[in-house]
From TrEMBL:
It catalyses: Exonucleolytic cleavage in the 3'- to 5'-direction to yield nucleoside 5'-phosphates. This is Ribonuclease R. It comes from the Bacteria. It comes from Sneathiella sedimenti. Its EC number is 3.1.13.1. The gene is rnr. Residues 732-760 have a biased composition (Basic residues). Residues 11-21 have a biased composition (Basic and acidic residues). Belongs to the RNR ribonuclease family. RNase R subfamily. 3'-5' exoribonuclease that releases 5'-nucleoside monophosphates and is involved in maturation of structured RNAs. It is found in: Cytoplasm. Residues 1-25, 715-766 are annotated as: Disordered. HAMAP family: RNase_R (MF_01895).
Length: 766
């Protein structure tokens, strides 16, 4: 509510301000709003407050230049792509970068004078004006040149020549490759080809520049994602030269931590080891039952300094990208897998934080240091868990009592504080690809999750919190990991979805992580819990990197920054540099000019992180599709994860693979789509398909190029669809009366038009 003291007759209401912004053709700034309503002086505080309220309520969004627009609105200038030409010859376009849920608004491209009219797939830089009906008009600023880079695709031989089907789903046209330009490629091979200059209205011609390998080979599947998303996978000579020149670090002024039994705990297929842990009971008599712990992180800042070739390469990548068969590292192998990796029994430089906790897991204090460690062991999560449960092997037998058990003891205390804090507790199992000796996929599993995983995660979270708290306290630049609460619109959509699954959530309540955990607790079984976790995840805001401390909603933490993985995340490296400068821990700290780049870098590395996530997911889908390609015709148990007009999206229980059951495969019926209840209802049979239904499906089609799968519903479904109860014609209505009898509809006799009657008669008499 706006204070009464700030309201006066000449000031606009919140609704008036919102209407002004909604009706504006382009995004507007505070200055334009103040000028429109003649708001001056101290009254600007009132304007700032109601604008903040509109943003918090999800009605407005801030643009790149602090411009305000209705939620989901497009910027005043954007890159658009012509999608189609309508029957009147008008070009209809869509925005190239659209991050919102749902379909983007329609953009009508105005005829650009005497210049050539835009065609389908043309990219244009245009000035956009929003219309009252929610559509946009675009005035072309300039036509953008089409991409002329190499195209990755699957080659198919047709006669002497061939065709290349691009792996990028956005590229609809196949590429014609003449025999002399094919490099001898065979059908089914993944190839790189350059587009040859020529007319664009026909199929483009190309020249094969590289034969990657057969489609379905692991190397080919990863390369598809690398190329499709423009992920840099090679380092320039300058960066390689710096990496090769790097040397091991001596103790010098560092704190010697080599006497402590620090060890690393990682997945069995880990490519790098950037964190080591140690814990022991606190020997302070004032902290009875308390614990102390050290988290030691590879000191990447020692090797990668601001402005160096390595720094430029790492900043461009933003993060490492992990595929089932390989990693595209942020740093060259010489650093990421060697000098910055905390291998056992070798000296390695670290940035370390020592933390003290009470018996309830509350952090009492912490301190940072630059040290030198020698990890005593590199364990897998399975090894650490087995040792904790008394099943030791040759490596863990000597470590179980004095090293591993104190870690679990400290975690037991931290778990108490975590439970009290109530972070978002999602159940989202990962898929793991298992390869055979021949390099091809042997199986697809869901990754096992142990208490050892949660131990390491909680230690890392506490180290990240300590880093953020230190930089906040010392008023130093920090790259925060920000996760804002979900918007009102997304919560309304989630509530409607959950209601159809008989999961209760009251509208209007203050949304907290505990709210979501109560929702998750209502899931009946593990499969339902995975689905609900997925739905809750979709309702969340995207976590980003920012120099503004907007807190972390999901973890329920006020101060949070990534500190624990500088080998694979550039954000962590920036936090290390800021800590080094703030605490005067030697060379490799933050430069003054770098501090001014935090906002721009935060935007960039948030984008590279999203790019990596999409590429990794698509590649996992392709690997899974290759594995299931040999199982076409088999029956699988599945869960409905989405309902649309086009059909059902399903998640297969065993592999977690996603598949589509087109509406044409659901039965000989016409299905009505109910978007509010997430249901498809058969008009003739009354069959209902709804979200969370368990179904038996037959795998019908697998496309390993795109990673997509088509299934059809088996008639012997596992309680999936339910018939709609049709109204009883004899049922009494309220008041004891029967419903009025329906009048029989008299069918009209079907007749042919006059011309066709004459033609039929003539044919019969001839």
């Amino acid at each position: 509510m706006t204070p009464k003291s700030q309201q006066s007759e000449h000031l606009p209401t919140k609704e008036q301000v919102r209407s002004f912004i909604d009706e504006s053709e382009t995004p507007v700034g505070k200055r334009e709003i103040a000028r429109a309503f003649n708001i001056k002086g101290a009254d600007r505080i009132y304007l700032k407050k109601i604008l903040k309220e509109l943003i918090d309520e999800g009605h407005l969004e801030k643009g790149r230049k602090q411009e305000l627009a209705p939620a989901g609105a497009l910027p005043s200038v954007a890159v658009i792509e012509v999608d189609r030409i309508d029957k009147d010859g008008e070009a209809i376009a869509r925005p190239v970068s659209w991050q919102e849920d749902g379909k983007p608004p329609v953009i009508y491209v105005l005829q650009p004078g005497r210049t050539q009219a835009p065609g389908v797939r043309d990219r244009l830089l245009a000035r956009l004006a929003r219309q009252k009906d929610g559509t946009y008009e675009a005035r072309v600023i300039r036509r953008l040149e089409p991409s002329v880079g190499p195209t990755l695709g699957v080659y198919t031989k047709i006669g002497k020549d061939g065709r290349v089907q691009p792996t990028n789903r956005k590229l609809k046209k196949e590429i014609v490759v003449r025999e002399e330009n094919s490099m001898g490629a065979q059908s089914g091979e993944v190839v790189l080809c350059d587009i040859l200059p020529g007319k664009t209205y026909a199929l483009p011609e190309g020249r094969v520049t590289q034969r990657v390998g057969p489609m379905g080979d692991a190397a080919s599947l990863s390369l598809i994602a690398i190329h499709a998303h423009g992920i840099p996978d090679e380092f320039d000579k300058a960066a390689i030269k710096e990496a090769l020149a790097a040397k091991p670090v001596s103790l010098g002024k560092r704190t010697d931590l080599r006497g402590l039994p620090l060890l690393t705990i990682d997945p069995a297929d880990a490519r790098d080891r950037d964190d080591a842990v140690w814990a022991a009971p606190d020997d302070d008599p004032k902290n009875k039952g308390g614990w102390q712990a050290i988290v030691a992180i590879a000191d990447v800042a020692h090797y990668v300094t601001h402005g160096s070739a390595l720094d430029k390469a790492a900043k461009e990548r933003g993060n490492s990208v992990y595929f089932p068969d390989r990693v595209v590292p942020m740093l060259p192998h010489e650093l990421s897998s060697d000098l910055c990796s905390l291998h056992e029994n070798v000296d390695r430089p670290v940035m370390a934080v020592q933390m003290w906790f009470d018996s309830e897991g509350n952090k009492l204090r912490h301190k940072f240091m630059r040290g030198l460690i020698r990890s005593i062991a590199s364990l897998t999560y399975r090894q650490a868990q087995d040792a904790h449960e008394g099943k030791t092997d040759d490596k863990t037998e000597m470590l179980a009592t004095e090293v591993i058990e104190p870690l679990f003891g400290a975690y037991a205390a931290l778990k108490k504080a975590r439970t009290k804090r109530q972070p978002l507790d999602l159940d989202l199992p990962e898929r793991r690809i298992e390869f055979g000796v021949d390099g091809f996929i042997k199986a697809v599993h869901k990754r096992e999750r142990f208490e050892a995983h949660m131990l390491v995660e909680e230690f890392m979270i506490q180290a990240n919190v300590s880093a953020a708290e230190t930089l906040v306290k010392m008023k130093q630049p920090c790259m925060f990991r920000v996760h804002e609460p979900p918007t009102t619109d997304k919560m309304i959509g989630l509530q409607e979805t959950l209601a159809d699954m008989n999961i209760r959530y009251a509208k209007g309540q203050v949304v907290t992580t505990e709210t979501f955990n109560r929702i998750l607790a209502q899931a009946d079984n593990d499969i339902d819990r995975e689905l609900v976790s997925s739905l809750v995840l979709r309702s969340q805001s995207q976590a980003v990197y920012s120099p503004d401390n907007l807190h972390h909603f999901g973890l329920h933490l006020q101060n949070y920054a990534h500190f624990t993985s500088p080998i694979r995340r550039y954000a962590d490296l920036m936090v290390h540099r800021s800590l080094i400068s703030a605490l005067k821990l030697g060379d490799g700290g933050l430069k003054d000019e770098e501090a001014f780049e935090f906002r721009e870098i935060g935007t960039q590395i948030s984008a590279t992180e999203r790019r990596a996530m999409v590429a990794e997911r698509e590649t996992t889908d392709r690997f899974t599709a290759v594995f299931l390609a040999n199982k076409v015709g088999e029956i699988f148990q599945a869960k409905v994860s989405g309902v649309t007009r086009a059909g059902l999206f399903l998640s297969l229980d065993d592999s977690g693979a996603d598949a589509l059951a087109p509406i044409s495969t659901l039965g000989n019926d016409f299905f009505n789509f109910d978007p509010e209840k997430h249901m498809l209802v058969g008009k003739r049979t009354g069959r209902v398909f709804r979200l969370a239904d368990r179904l038996a499906v037959r795998l019908r089609e697998v496309d390993i190029v795109t990673g997509s799968m088509i299934v059809e519903i088996e008639d012997g479904r596992d309680g999936g669809s339910t018939p709609v109860r049709r109204p009883d014609p004899n049922r009494k209505m309220r008041g004891g009366t029967k419903p009025p009898a329906r009048k029989p509809v008299k069918k009209k006799k079907r007749t042919l038009p006059k011309g066709k009657k004459w033609a039929r008669r003539r044919q019969e008499t001839s």
